[in-house]
Specification:
By secondary structure, this protein is mostly beta strands. It has a domain of about 40 residues: Rubrerythrin, domain 2, CATH 2.20.28. It is about 0% helix and about 25% strand. It is built from no helices and five strands. It has a three-stranded antiparallel sheet, with no helix packed on it. Strand 4 and strand 5 form a beta hairpin. About 10% of the residues have low confidence.
């Protein structure tokens, strides 16, 4: 089951919920119980332990590989 982020239109609370695909409409607000919630597009950071991965389209390549044309950075 995917993890989705939601925002309640009634109280403004943001929360995450594991939801079966196609059943997003059944989710209610975790704070106030309102059924008026919207699914948000979540962004995530890519971190490799202690080292951050730089996603760049420069010709130098990325910090995690020696290739100058990997699918991660280009």
């Amino acid at each position: 089951m995917p993890l989705y982020e939601f925002r309640c239109r009634a109280c403004g609370a943001r929360f995450e919920r594991l939801v079966r695909i196609g059943r997003e409409a059944e989710v209610g607000c975790a704070a106030c119980g309102s059924p008026d919630v919207e699914k948000l597009f979540s962004s995530f950071g890519i971190h490799g332990g202690e080292k951050d991965v730089s996603m760049s389209s420069s010709s130098k390549g990325c910090s995690t590989c020696s290739s100058k044309s990997c699918s991660t950075c280009h």
